[in-house]
Amino acid sequence: MSDLTHLDASGAANMVDVSEKDATHRTGIAEGLVVMQPETLAIIRQGDAKKGDVLGTARLAGIMAAKRTHELIPLCHPLLLTKVRVDCEIDESLPGVRITAEVRVSGQTGVEMEALTAASVACLTIYDMVKAVDRAMRIEGVRLLKKSGGRSGTYEAAP
């Protein structure tokens, strides 16, 4: 059985022991999309949502979520993040909002889950803030775009 598994000798889930791994600079970048009606996107673009600044709130929610990933996802290690950036860009071609989350750490384990959590929560926040006008919105395409650092090297998603 590999040393890097979430299963112990009896097959029960447990947190991976990363104490033997070297601390390295690690980056994870993830994205998610919120697809909506053009009218809903116009409300967000114009800043007319009844709940306030949709994109600003989504950015903050994503950052906060990245910092709490270990509380949300079982078996994730608590990490001292060195950078979290969440960008929310209006994308007329969807129509909707494209979320990109970048998370960095210098440590013994990666930040893919933190980046994915940040993107997911930012998408959910957008949905929550304008769901009263568009319940048909879709959250889709949440995926890891890039991962670097650590034993497994670099990963880049196909475009």
Automatic annotation (TrEMBL):
Reactions listed under catalytic activity: (8S)-3',8-cyclo-7,8-dihydroguanosine 5'-triphosphate = cyclic pyranopterin phosphate + diphosphate
Residues reported to bind substrate: L75, C76, H77, M113, E114
Gene Ontology biological-process entries: Mo-molybdopterin cofactor biosynthetic process
Active-site residue numbers: D128
Cited CDD domains: MoaC_PE (cd01420)
Pathway(s): Cofactor biosynthesis; molybdopterin biosynthesis
Keyword Zinc-finger included in the entry's annotation: no
Domain Molybdopterin cofactor biosynthesis C (MoaC): from-to ranges: 15-150
Name this polypeptide is given: Cyclic pyranopterin monophosphate synthase
Gene behind the chain: moaC
